[in-house]
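Worked Example 4.2. Consider the chain below.
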Amino acid sequence: MVNKRVIGDDIELECVRYLMEHGVKRIEKNYRCRLGEIDIIGYDEEYLVFFEVKYRKSTTSGWAESAVGYSKQLQICKVSDFYRLNKHISEDTPMRYDVLAVNDKDVMWYKNAFDYITR
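Applying the procedure from the previous section yields the following C-alpha cells:
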C-alpha cells in the first residue's frame, strides 16, 4: 500500500513541472507557517500566485476542483498574508489564487479560482 503523503508529494512535483512548462517562475513548494500551508507559490507574469493542489484518483468522491471550500480558501488567504509580510512583498503586487485540479492524470489549471477573503 502506498502512503497518501508520498502520492501527494508526487502529484505536487508533477504540478510544479506543469507550471514551469507553462511559464511560472520562482516556484516555492509547501510553504508552511503557524497558520497553515500553501502547496505552491510562484509568479505567473506579474502575478504572485498561490496555488492549491487537489488530487482525486477517481471522481467517485467528486471532482478535485470542488474540494477547495470556503474554510480552505480563508486559510490560504491568511497564509498568503503571512507570506507576503514575511517576504517583504509590496501590497501593490498583483496576486491571484489558483487551483490545480488533478483528476487521475489530467491537470486542470483554474486561474483566479477564488477571490481574496478577509476576516
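The chain has a mean pLDDT of 88. The first strand starts at residue 25 and ends at 33. Compare this with Example 4.1 before moving on.
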